[in-house]
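Example record

The entry below shows one chain as it appears in the dataset: sequence first, then structure tokens.
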Amino acid sequence: MDQQKKIASDKWQRALKLAKTGAKVGANYMKHYAKKVIQSEVSQEDLDKANAEEIYETLSELKGSVLKVAQMLAMDDYVMPEAYVKMFQQAQYQAPPLSYALVKNQIKKHLGFYPEEIFDEFSNQAKHAASIGQVHKAKKGDHFYAVKIQYPGVANSIKSDLNLAKPMATRIMGLKGKNLDKYFQEVEEKLMEEADYDHELSQALKLKERLAPLNGIVIPSYYPKMSGKRVITMDWIDGVHWDKFAAQDLSQETRNQIGQILWDFYSYQIWELKEFHADPHPGNFLVTSNNELAVLDFGCTKAIPDEYFEPFNILIKTNLDDFSDQELKKKMIEIELLFEDDTDDMSSLFIDIFREMLNKLKEPFDAKKFDFSDPKFFESLAERGKELSKMEKLRKDKKARGSRHAIYMNRTFFGLYNLLHIMKAEVKTQ
């Protein structure tokens, strides 16, 4: 894979690059419809593929928060057309890497020494490259290490990148910019945490200790003396990434075993620790040779405040049909899906929709065992979501609904469901 020699870090350079890509995408649409006049068999898939390639090329060059958003979107096969999902999935651990010269300079800048002065061996080529940083393999004595180096300028560009994205998000969602402030603040805070490797180090050390009771989970040891704000060093763990492991010819027993470890990992964090790893994509999980699950990245974690956890817990663990509309309305107000000034008509509409959708989403929790290999569960969610997005009353509603804490909770549950779907696992959910 070609190495990248520089990253645009100035906000105007980044804005210009995004604008140029937008113009190319527009040109692709024009060419597509021009061809369609002459050749009726021209497909939407061809247009999606061309646009996905253009957009991903730009995002992978910019790296940072814009590429992270693409990575997040690619966690769900039903959010975007297939061409975009396939292209953006590369951001999970197969993004174009930085050149070795830039890597050396980053390590020297943040650790005070070049890699060859710290380690006996250090790979010139990145073993994995994602949205915010890339990983190199190193050796000192008989021990192998994974050294994650952050791309230059990532942390400094987060705020300006989100400011660039905000007008587009407000247009897409049909909301006023100020209504989205709480969500952008949550995303900005989490991205800043991810870009702070001192924070990741402290979170990893804390959660490694707190997750010790779990069977089947491997968390690497971290090395503070060989880490800093933009470089972090941990044990190298041999294994196969989640998606590549799932693509192998595996017994159903093995699929269920690995799926159960992942389900228990998240259940324990959410219900026992009330703090969890909030970045569940295939690049962050390795399956080892003895079928244990290695968790590689604790940069994005989420603590659940009591005022959100309590209504969430009740809603997940209770049959919603046992709630009266008034009782459900009270819980929905607590999690900011409804407001005291909503009309009775609007409240009734959202109560009905929420009851329907949450009953569907929590089917895995209501079953003793759930088969995540069944595509019908995911397809029905996606289809109903599309129907709701076209509902006139919902489109006219300009309120930003939902707590800021729901962003990473929802992302984690959808990511967990998708990983188990990839593994085709049946797991015990109670």
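Notes for this example: DSSP finds 18 helices and 13 strands in the chain. The two ends are 44 Å apart (CA to CA).
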